[in-house]
Amino acid sequence: MRFDIVTLFPDFFSSPLQSGLVGKALEREIASVNLINPRDFTTDKHHRVDDEPYGGGVGMLMKPDPLFAAVESLPVLPQREILLLTPQGQPMHQRMFEELATYDQIVLVCGHYEGVDERVRQHLVTREVSLGDFVLTCGEIPALALLNGVLRLRPGTVGKEESLKAESFETDLLDYPQYTRPAEFRNWTVPDILRSGNHKKIAQWRKSQQIERTRDRRPDLYQQWLQSEMGDDV
After folding, report:
1. 186-212, pLDDT tens digit by residue?
2. Which of 136, 160, 181, 225 is most buried, taking the most CB atoms under 10 A from its CB?
3. Residue 85, helix vs strand vs coil
């Protein structure tokens, strides 16, 4: 799998791409990351990548020509998505990551300033994606989040792949509470059921905790889970 990140600040990714499971996955060539700076594709002596919006307004916009040139310089793999990271995009979610993990190539275009020329949205990118309903200073932060979320789903990145099937959002339910040693810490004890050795009852307890936690913390996901459960019973 290949990630191409179109960014004005390649150094932003230096440490994250060398750390943790992401760094190990890239070392093992589970995926590759290519950083490309649109400033390298400017043709004026000042290497400008932004300009004032037509019609007036506050702030600057990223120019279309360096972005088009940067993306068009890349190889094209059979299954490819070109994503623009923008607050106007579709919020990221687990199903999106699962879909993107099947692609051969993901191109991430990191927005800046007040946004990008509309022709980039209309004629260059294939999808707009957001980290959430808020505004950040740059598109590099959501790009890194998406890369991390997708890469961890690729075979070989996570040591125990079965753990991916039981975590939050995989079944529209949040994860259950988990504990480790010591069994008692500051008078707070691990639930007896988890130390009982009865795996059937432990599984039942964990499922009930998932349902309760999702109902209390994420009513939207809880309703989604209820609907899927009713659909399975039809």
Report:
1. 999 999 999 999 999 999 999 999 999
2. 225
3. strand
